[in-house]
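queue> pop job 88
queue> type: inverse folding (structure -> sequence)
queue> payload:
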């Protein structure tokens, strides 16, 4: 078992042991810290992820900003990539790949990807240099190779931020990590 697999397993265990009350409190603090970022305040086209399996929560943020910003969610295409698809109110989603909710009844277009000013990135573990370990499928790393470079902001619980993690040549770091306790500027 390699180091990334060990780290992923350890952090997922920690993350999954949070009580509902603690997770709710941490998510509120993460949202407050994200909303304090000037880059977030100025960005109008933002790709969010729909949180699942214990990831830092995004649904309340999506609901809050759906009317004032153009938000997008990823839609998995094949086994290797995704596209950013716009979402609108009312939030109309279907269960997609890995049972992750994604937009319904939208004609995919690559032009959306180039409008993005910010991408809210999920992950399992991060270090203070912006390196991340995801679920191991490489979707976000491949996505960042394909599009222009918007600001990449990770949402995480403080327990997910380590001093260092292994980095492979294809890994793409994030610019900022927002946790319930800190904001890490990685560049």
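queue> result:
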């Amino acid at each position: 078992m390699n180091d990334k697999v060990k780290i992923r397993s350890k952090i997922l265990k920690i993350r999954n042991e949070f009580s509902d009350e603690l997770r709710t409190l941490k998510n509120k603090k993460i949202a407050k810290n994200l909303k304090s970022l000037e880059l977030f305040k100025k960005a109008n086209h933002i790709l969010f992820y729909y949180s699942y399996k214990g990831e830092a929560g995004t649904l309340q943020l999506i609901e809050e900003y759906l009317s004032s910003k153009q938000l997008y969610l990823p839609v998995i295409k094949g086994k290797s990539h995704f596209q950013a698809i716009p979402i609108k109110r009312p939030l109309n989603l279907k269960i997609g790949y890995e049972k992750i909710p994604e937009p319904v009844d939208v004609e995919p277009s690559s032009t959306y990807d180039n409008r993005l000013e910010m991408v809210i990135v999920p992950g399992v573990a991060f270090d203070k240099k912006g390196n991340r370990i995801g679920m191991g499928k490489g979707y976000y790393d491949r996505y960042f190779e394909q599009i222009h470079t918007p600001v990449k902001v990770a949402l995480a619980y403080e327990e997910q931020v380590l001093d260092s993690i292994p980095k492979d040549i294809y890994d793409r770091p994030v610019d900022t990590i927002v946790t319930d306790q800190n904001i890490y500027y990685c560049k």
